[in-house]
Amino acid sequence: MVNQMKNVALVKQLYIVFSVIFMTSCDQPKVTVFSNCVIPSFPAANSIACADGKITSIGEDLTGDIMINLEKGVVYPGFMDAHLHLVWYGKAMEILDLVGTKSAAEITSIVAQVYDGSERWIIGRGWDQNDWEIIQYPNKESLDKVAVDQPVYLHRIDGHAIWVNSNVLSICGIDRNTADPIGGKILRDSSGNPTGVFIDNAMDLIKKFVPDNSKNDKRRQIINAVRKLNQFGLTAIHDAGTDIETVHILKELIAQEQLTIRVNAMLNNNSEDYQEFLTKGPDITDKFLSVRTVKIYFDGAMGSRGAALLEPYADDPKNIGLNLTDERKITEKVNQFNAAGFQVAIHCIGDRANRLALDIFEESGNQNARNRIEHAQIIHSDDLPRYFDLGVIPSMQATHCTSDMYWIDERLGDERLHEAYPWQSLLQTGSIIPGGSDAPVEIPNPLLGIHAAVTRQDTSGWPAEGWQANERMTIDQALASITSWAAYSMFAESYLGKIKPGYIADFTVLSQDLSTIDPAQIPSVNVHFTIVNGKVVYRR
Ligand SMILES: [Zn+2]
How far apart are CA 88 and CA 102, in angstroms? Predict the structure, then answer.
């Protein structure tokens, strides 16, 4: 009897012990503490506690269930890239890399190495005739010499032009009788024959013949891209042109807990990509994926003289650039998408494109839609205050300035050079500038973006005084551009972009405090940890 009572008491005790263990593990999320770190926004603290993917407290010597030693690393809110191309970046890792090539001959020798005479398309990207000794467009003949009977298809660095060989022209049925499409240009020789270079909408004549990227290819490219982006310290990206299949792949990865970066998707301006969402409204239920933006192309790019300018190109006096999408159509779509609860992001590079897009947004009157202009590279002085006044967000890429500064004066001429990449002028009007890389056009390393923003120099320190140095950002502005301003431009400022209790636990941990070092040293700072949703997704 006594023994029986003892047993009952023992069972009760065990029950209490197990209940406590069970309740702590199920009812209360485990607390992860990131310790031994420097937090520039909280100088007195050295640790951050998180639970359930969110920051719970910031303080000195905090303790928790899981302790992660950040080894004196400097903790910033997770870095975001407000404009890049996710699948294209992943794909760029798998095709011929022509970035930094110095001549057409160097490229044809690269093509010669992979030529096998099969029907497989040889695809590459990254050529830029502005970087060559002889600055002129290449032609199909030079590719024909090394690959006469195999298709060769090479993207220019900015994705706004392609260079192909004669084999591609015959596959696509293109000859001197093929007309230039609206918003596109087929470069031709003196007798009207295509030279092998196609600009902006003319690329569509060829694109449709390029073998499809399968869903499996895309999935692999996304996984490889995300791994690399995490290595650069990125915890969130804005994908500037997402198709519906990519949305599905991202959702599958989220369901399998495999996506380690937050994606703000800007849907392509194709009805098959946006129609489903337009009917059911924005998809913002999961903080790893938000679908509430549609991206529209207005003009081309400066490098290929497709950007729409108010006055002709200084180095091409008959050319004012290309309108890729009809203005009336854009107006209709802005109204349609805004009414359905979607933000509209319009690609505008030249001052004419920027002005017309601002006119369209002004006419639409949807000031709370947080509509964006992507790139906003060349802005007429009269239009500078209109971004803030109209609630339109200029989404810019600092490294575009430092890549283009070697030749942009030839395109614009001296008189309007002040219009180029006017960051500080825009900021002074009250505007914010979310920052991005446009990868794979530029390397998506946010430290390179910050360096370009605060110096307007290349990584070798040229030019010594900074290019149009009055337009530089301060380090605080450059950091805001890839944290809080990038969060605002995706409607996420209430939970992303700051180190603050209640905010999501996304952090970029660096080897040094960027505010205290010589800006020239910024590109050589290391990313020690990338933390997404309270979990380490990259460790150096
Ligand atoms: Zn882009």
Answer: 23
Contact, 148 vs 117, CB < 8 A? no
- Using only C-alpha atoms, the chain has a radius of gyration, in whole angstroms, of 26
Element (H, E) at 480: helix 475-481
This prediction has a pTM of 0.87
Which residues have C-beta under 5 Å from ligand 1, the single-atom ion? 240, 438
- State in Å: Cα 434 to ligand 1 middle: 14
Full set of structural domains in the chain with CATH:
2-72 (no CATH), 79-86+215-500 (3.20.20.140), 100-156+160-207 (3.10.310.70)
Distance 438 CA to ligand 1 centre (A): 5
In angstroms, the CA 78 to CA 236 distance is 7
Residues 263-304 pLDDT 10s:
999 999 999 999 999 999 999 877 999 999 999 999 999 988
Q: Label the pairing between strands 372-375 and 343-348.
A: parallel
Give me ligand 1 centre to Cα 76, in Å.
Answer: 26
Give exposure, 244-273, as e/b (b: 16+ Cβ within 10 Å).
Answer: bbbbebbbebbeeeebbbbbbbbbbbeeeb
162 phi, psi to nearest 5 deg: -130, 155
